[in-house]
Amino acid sequence: MARYCFLGHVDPANLEEYRARHAEVWPELLVALRDADWRNYSLFLRPDGLLIGYAESDDLDAAQRRVAETAVNARWQAEMARLFGTEGAPDEAWEFVPEVFNLEVQLERAGEAVLSVR
Amino acid sequence: MARYCFLGHVDPANLEEYRARHAEVWPELLVALRDADWRNYSLFLRPDGLLIGYAESDDLDAAQRRVAETAVNARWQAEMARLFGTEGAPDEAWEFVPEVFNLEVQLERAGEAVLSVR
């Protein structure tokens, strides 16, 4: 399992609509993401429109290809595209940011218990 | 448990040193973070110095107060401070970004299994 961080840009004029839509994502899309191996997927939105994604997957490229093949994802991305400040499908414009630290990985490497023993 | 995203700014002149130091964080600090209830804590670094943190905790404010009380954190922050583009202790200058979506939370709410049943 690997951890991924990626950035996008929501048009600042559309922040409220973006929040409202993402507070109630279609269950069919949630299931498609889950079955494509998107795990622990969160989105964070800064008031200027910077959108930060975090997800875990064995291979997020492969997971993204699988979800991109679903009809529900095509419908969702088409509805979301106009909320973004970028061209094309929002999920094809992610900027990935490399990981430089993970607590649990380094605890394991150091021979320490990953969970607190307090 | 809640999920948190926060931003900082590493001085672009110090990216290599920042990466090298965070590839081998002191085990004593790893344990202090774990015992303060920092969980699944990752850092991601963009080539322009934008630093993105992700962590899980029951209460990250409380977790941060606990780790800030440790001598090892004070030593670490003092060594890291000059790598950042901001004044003061880096861990006191985080900009938190609100979560707008989590896959598992919405799967549960929709009555769907959180793990794939494929």
The total of helices of chain A stands at 5
Global morphology of chain A: globular
Strand order of the largest sheet of chain A: 2-3-1-4
Question: Largest interface here, residues on each chain?
Answer: A-B, 47 and 47 residues
Largest sheet of chain A: 4 strands, antiparallel
| Helix and strand element order of chain A | EHHEEHHEEH
User: According to CATH, what is the class of chain A?
Assistant: Alpha Beta
Radius of gyration of chain A: 16 Å
What is the second-level CATH architecture of chain A?
2-Layer Sandwich
Poorly predicted segments of chain A: none
Q: How many beta-strand elements of chain A?
A: 5
The oligomeric state of the chains shown is: homodimer
Please tell me the total number of domains of chain A: 1
CATH topology of chain A: Alpha-Beta Plaits
Average predicted local confidence, pLDDT of chain A: 93
* Beta-strand content bin of chain A: 25-35%
The structure class of chain A reads alpha+beta
The proportion of residues forming helix of chain A, as a percent range, comes to: 25-40%
* Distance linking N and C termini of chain A: 27 Å
Structure description:
Chain A has 118 residues and is of the alpha+beta class. Chain A has a single domain, classed as Alpha-Beta Plaits, CATH 3.30.70. In chain A, 37% of the residues lie in helices and 25% in strands. Chain A is built from five helices and five strands; from the N terminus they run E-H-H-E-E-H-H-E-E-H. A four-stranded antiparallel beta sheet of chain A has the order 2-3-1-4, with no helix packed on it. In chain A, strand 2 and strand 3 form a beta hairpin. The radius of gyration of chain A is 16 Å and the shape is globular. The two termini of chain A are 27 Å apart. At the A-B interface, strand 1, helix 1, helix 2, strand 2 and strand 3 of A face strand 1, helix 1, helix 2, strand 2 and strand 3 of B. Strand 5 of chain A pairs antiparallel with strand 2 of chain B.
